[in-house]
Amino acid sequence: MTKLNDALLSIIIVSYNTADLTAQTLISVKSSLEKSELLNRTEVFVVDNNSSDDSVKKIKSFQKKFIHFKLIENKDNIGFSGANNQAAQIASGDYLLLLNSDTIVQRKALEKLVTGAQKYKFDIAAAKLLNQDHSTQPQGGNLPSLITLFNHMFFLDDLPVIGRFFPSTQNTGLNHTNTNKIHQTNNIQAKEVGWVGGTAMLISHNLWDKIGPLDEKIFMYGEDIEFCIRAKKHGAKIGIITSSLIVHLGSASSSSKNALLGELKGYIYIWKKHKPSWQMPILKLILRFGIILRIFLFGMILRDPKGKVYLEALKVI
User: 42, 50, 86, 191 - which has most CB atoms within 10 Å?
Assistant: First the structure.
């Protein structure tokens, strides 16, 4: 891969046993770049974490379909953070885009994402995520605090009418429709948030160099929140470009069980790293009682398989 001296965008995709999904993502990236000003200023990196399926073979078939493309083959699974850091270390773009292998980039989404970040001076910007049926998928949330986590764990952000007024660590409830400082110029719409998910996360290379890479002590889940916490401490501006649309197939690239357990472990790690020690017992109480509430709701009332997962989650706290 020849170095792209005037690279504007470096796209990084981490692959692990998602051959067909990764291929689908690459096809959508190529389609989104066509007839775009980004076409000749974008480099694509795929980091494969020692997949046991035919991921590497399928990824290699894309090497001639992009102007600047590099496949990094790891001999071990070094995790989401480690793999992204590996590619970022050699990336030359002004912006780094961490893009999940279970996404489908929509038409002009990449151009709108970069343009929006430039226009509104976002140091970190994410695309608006859609479910497979193109309904809105919640994205990001308020920075973690005991209050925002309490509101999330006890469904206060899901309350009818008033739910949107409860700041929540995860914008999964009614409050994900609540917007902070909406911007709109020339069909590029955006809103500011506390953090955004690593599913489709655009990061200024200058910010990356300033605050350091993703925390590799977090193997997967929570590394995006932790990165945004550090970014905010350095005065970074974070937002969602709501006119940039990317379909996220959800837990296709990892199990929902791993996501749930990883999320809980992530909160505990983040509190140990960034919060005063007196908050840890309160954090664990909030998480524990929030999990018990979910066991009752999902396991006993709704008879949802999630109930068993939450039983296991109690052991994590």
Answer: 42
